[in-house]
Amino acid sequence: MNYPVWNLTTFGGGFLIAFVAVVHVLVSHFAVGGGAYLVMLEKKAYRDENLKLLDYVKKHSKFFLLLTMVFGGLTGVGIWWTIALLNPAATSSLIHIFVFGWAAEWVFFVGEIVALFIYFYTFGKMDRKNHIIIGWIYFFCAWMSLFLINGIIDFMLTPGAWIENQNFWSGFFNPTFWPSLVFRTGLSLVLCGVFGFVTAAFLKDEKLRHSIMRTCAAWVAIPFVLMLIGGWWYSIALPEGPKAMMMGKSPEMGIYLQTLLWFLPLLFIASMVMAIRLPQSFQKGFCFAVVAIALIYFGAFEFIREGSRRPFIIYDHMYSNQVYVKDVPEVQKAGFLPTAKWTQHKEITDENLIDAGRDLFKFQCSACHSVNGPLNNIVPIVQKYDNVFGMDAMLNGLGKINDYMPHFMGTREERWALANYIVHGPDIRSTKEITPQHVAHETPAH
Amino acid sequence: MNPATLIPTPDAIPVPWGWFYVLLMLTFLLHILVMNAMLGGGIISLISALRGGEQNILLGKEFSYKWPYTIAFAVNMGVAPLLFVQVLYGQFIYSSSILMAVWWFSIIGLLILAYYAAYLYDFKFDALGGLRIFVLEFAVLIMLLIAFFFTNNMTLMLQPDQWQAYFSNASGTLLNFSDPSLIPRYFHFVVGAVAVAGLYLALIGQFRFTKSKVDREALIDKGMRYFTVASGIQILLGIWFLLALPKEIMMLFMGRSGYGTILLLLGLILAGVALYFGYKKQVVNASIATLVLLTVMILMRDLVRIAYLEPYFKVADLTVRPEYSPMIFFLVVFVAGLALIAYMLKLAFGCRKEVTK
Question: Residue A289: is its pLDDT beyond 70?
Answer without folding.
Answer: yes
